[in-house]
Write a structure and sequence with these properties.
The protein has 4 helices and no strands. With 84 residues, the chain is mainly α.
């Protein structure tokens, strides 16, 4: 029973770290937006471009760190795909 509970808290901590790292990865997009506002280039399309950049950065960080923090889950998914 304690092994399952320990595993739960370990995985929960890793998941929390993933969310935090994905959030940190979007900081450059926020800086870009602040620079655009400072130069009075704030338009609806610039907001969409910066949001798209933030989404790409967060997704990339999530994928990169997920492979580092959860290597066993990735190998299990690859085995399941190969079996199909």
């Amino acid at each position: 029973m304690s092994v399952g509970v320990t595993s739960f808290w370990r995985d929960l901590g890793k998941l929390y770290a993933l969310y935090m790292l994905a959030g940190l990865a979007t900081i450059p997009a926020g800086v870009v937006y602040a620079l655009l506002v400072n130069q009075s280039w704030e338009r609806w399309w610039s907001v969409l471009l910066v949001l798209a950049l933030a989404t790409v950065l967060a997704k990339s960080a999530w994928a990169y760190f997920h492979k580092r923090l959860f290597p066993a889950a990735d190998s299990e998914q690859q085995r399941a795909r190969a079996a199909d």
